[in-house]
Amino acid sequence: MESRLATIQTRNWGTIGGNIAHADAAGDPAPVLITLGASVKVGNAGGTRIIPLEDFYVDLFETALEEDELLLEIQVPTPPPRSAAVYEKFNLLSSDQGIVAVAASVSLNEDGTCKEAKIALGNAGPTGMRAKEAEGLLVGRKPDEALLAEAGLKAAEGCDPTADIHASEEYRRHLVNVLTRRMVKRAWEQAGTSV
Question: What is the pTM of this model?
Answer without folding.
Answer: 0.91
